[in-house]
Specification:
CATH superfamily of the largest domain: FAD/NAD(P)-binding domain
Radius of gyration: 23 Å
Number of strands: 22
Bound molecules: flavin-adenine dinucleotide
Strand content: 15-25%
Strand order of the largest sheet: 8-7-16-17-18-15-21
Structural class: alpha+beta
Largest sheet: 7 strands, mixed
Number of domains: 3
CATH topology of the largest domain: FAD/NAD(P)-binding domain
CATH architecture of the largest domain: 3-Layer(bba) Sandwich
Number of helices: 19
CATH class of the largest domain: Alpha Beta
Distance between the termini: 37 Å
Helix content: 25-40%
């Protein structure tokens, strides 16, 4: 059997690309290593509760709708807005409100910073205006080989490309320092939390635009429901999806991909290969280093991804919890603000760290038994902190379970400061660590949110997309196919899927709604 395109990985990006290609009549095979589709955008079940493996909500619902329509999917999907709150010893704020009301609330809490806040928000609003649709007009956000349909015009430059480059290389701390002096305020505006500002001005503008103006939403079909819809479309259009079919290597001849070899030893040929596997895994594990230009490989190896996290899933009796302090579906909570200690113990000091609490049953009331609730607790952790417990794929040392359990209990106990009664309300517990996201989620070192957001890496890659590669006819899709998550997670995965499909079909200049 021959294929026009082999897609490695059935995440949102892989399925999205396959759905677009099969709708255009291409013969597509999707190979997925896990026993389910959807990648990290899927769910798992424990004792009557259903929990999300990764994404809890996402931005740009209209673009998601228009992408599904372009893939021939007509489903009626409603979207519920998710709100976000921060509670720290010095701040309690709903920050997913419109920028003007965030500014007003901050001016009330920090009256001495009022003029600085005016100036900061004026600059931020102007930068958002210049950058919000940058992917539609800036050449760096278009595939290099973008071919235009006859009669279509090239996208016009609607702002100054050099300024965009400057924003992507300028640490946002510089903008904050220019206008403000209070460290709590600067950390909040520079990280939407309590962390030190690290990102570029460009990423900061994307982040506030998504949080406050576009909004963050959850779909009525569930995020895993989007993967189901895409997979159904692929199958309906004659495509093939094989789960439990990991790819071992990508076959390359004279700089051009010719197909793949599966873990079971099957050789499959196709003129195009699309990888939904992140670029580090693809180039460092699935390709032979000899086939890849050295400088490109060195950049892939040296540029960091975002880190990973510890995630605790709780099935609850909600009436036992005092929810008064939690005023939004997502609460970022830090109990204490003390100087951060050095060493690995600092990561376990949950009282002094920011914890995300998401009341998952707000978004997915049908994911809990009648009268029950669910909560997801997340705290960032580096992969290296857990690496010593991993002895092989899905294999752990004897102490791993006990350590995981101790961290889980500690995290619940600290969260109880925000939600009194939480400890007694828990009926079901499951915990994921960075090792889980590496071995089940299949991400390099369990990374969760794309390439690093740190400003100093703003110049690692030439363009903003990694859809095309130095290997002919090998394309990428998914969140790691963009060096910045300019549309947030799920929509960026769909956008890159759209561009990769367009590159193969020769119609990259599809109109965006
Ligand atoms: C814990 C966590 C929380 C997140 N929270 C959010 C959020 O709130 N909002 C948001 O928008 N995004 C979030 N994300 C990011 C989210 O994962 C993506 O937005 C979305 O799922 C798109 O993923 P993707 O297309 O890049 O592919 P992935 O989901 O990474 O899928 C890649 C697929 O490739 C498969 N694969 C890997 N190796 C092989 C191989 N050798 N052979 C065959 N198949 C292979 C994998 O099994 C997987 O199915 C989160 C991610 C994680 C892990």
């Amino acid at each position: 059997m021959s294929f026009d395109v082999i897609v490695i990985g059935a995440g949102i990006g892989g399925l999205g690309c396959a759905a677009r290609l099969t709708k255009a009549g291409r013969r597509v095979l999707v190979l997925e290593k896990n026993n389910h589709i959807g990648g990290t955008a899927y769910v798992f079940h424990r004792k009557g509760f259903t929990f999300p493996m990764g994404p809890l909500s996402f931005s740009f619902p209209d673009r998601v709708r228009s992408f599904l329509a372009a893939a021939g999917i007509e489903a009626e999907i409603g979207f519920r807005r998710n709100h976000f709150q921060l509670i720290s010893p010095s701040l309690d704020i709903i920050y997913s409100a419109r920028l003007n009301s965030v500014k007003r609330e901050l001016a009330n809490a920090f009256p001495h910073e009022k003029p600085g806040l005016e100036a900061f928000f004026r600059d931020l609003t102007e930068i958002i205006r210049q950058t919000e649709d940058v992917h539609l007009w800036h050449p760096d956000y278009w595939p290099k080989t973008a071919r235009l349909k006859p009669g279509r015009e090239k996208p016009r430059l609607s702002s100054d490309p050099a300024r965009i480059l400057e924003y992507s290389r300028t640490p946002c701390r510089r903008l904050l320092d220019r206008h403000l002096s209070d460290p709590t305020l600067k950390n909040f505006l520079g990280s939407q939390g309590t962390s030190e500002p690290e990102m570029s001005v460009l990423t900061l503008a994307f982040m506030w635009n998504v949080m406050s103006e576009v909004g963050i939403w959850s779909p009525s079909c569930g995020i895993h429901g989007l993967a189901d819809l895409l997979a159904e479309a692929v199958m309906r259009n004659g495509g093939d999806i094989r789960v439990n079919s990991g790819v071992k290597d990508i076959r390359i001849e004279k700089g051009r991909v010719t197909g793949v070899r599966t873990e079971s030893g099957e050789a499959l040929a196709a003129p195009w290969v699309v990888s939904n596997v992140d670029p580090k895994k693809t180039f460092l594990e699935l390709c032979s280093a000899a086939d890849i230009p050295r400088p490109f490989l060195a950049t892939i190896a040296a540029t960091p991804y975002t880190g990973s996290e510890l995630c605790v899933y709780l099935g609850l009796e909600p009436q036992k919890v005092d929810w008064k302090r939690m005023r939004a579906t997502h609460l970022f909570y830090q109990h204490k603000e003390e100087p951060i200690r050095a060493g690995p113990e600092a990561f376990e000091d949950f009282e002094n760290r920011e914890i995300e609490l998401c009341r998952w049953s707000d978004n997915a009331p049908d994911h809990v038994p009648p009268g029950k609730g669910s909560l997801v607790l997340r705290v960032s952790f580096p992969y290296d902190h857990f690496a010593g417990y991993r002895t092989g794929e899905k294999k752990r040392t004897a102490g791993y379970r006990a350590y995981k359990s101790a961290l889980t209990q500690k995290l619940i106990a600290v969260s109880e400061n925000a939600l009194p009664g939480l400890g007694t309300a828990v009926e079901v517990v499951e915990t994921a660590t960075p090792l889980t996201y590496a071995d089940w989620g299949r991400r390099y070192q369990g990374s969760i949110a794309g390439w690093t957001w740190r400003a100093e890496h703003g110049r690692s890659f030439k363009g903003k997309l990694l859809i095309e590669t130095p290997l002919q006819n090998l394309l990428f899709v998914g969140i790691y196919a963009a060096t910045e998550l300019f549309l947030g997670g799920v929509p960026t995965a769909m956008h890159t899927a759209d561009l990769a499909a367009g590159t193969i079909l020769g119609d990259t200049n599809r109109d965006e709604s």
